[in-house]
Amino acid sequence: MTPSDRRAGSDADADSAPVSDTASGSESVTDVVRPYTESEIIMTAVRIVTPFILTYGLFITFHGADSPGGGFQGGALVGVVVLMLAFAFGIQPTREWVGTGLITGLAAGGVIVFVSVGLGTLALGGAFLEYGLYEPFVGPDATKWGMEAIEIGGVAAIVAGVIMGLFFLTAAGYDATGGEEA
Question: Angle at the Cα of 156 (from 153 to 159), degrees rounded to 5?
Answer without folding.
Answer: 130
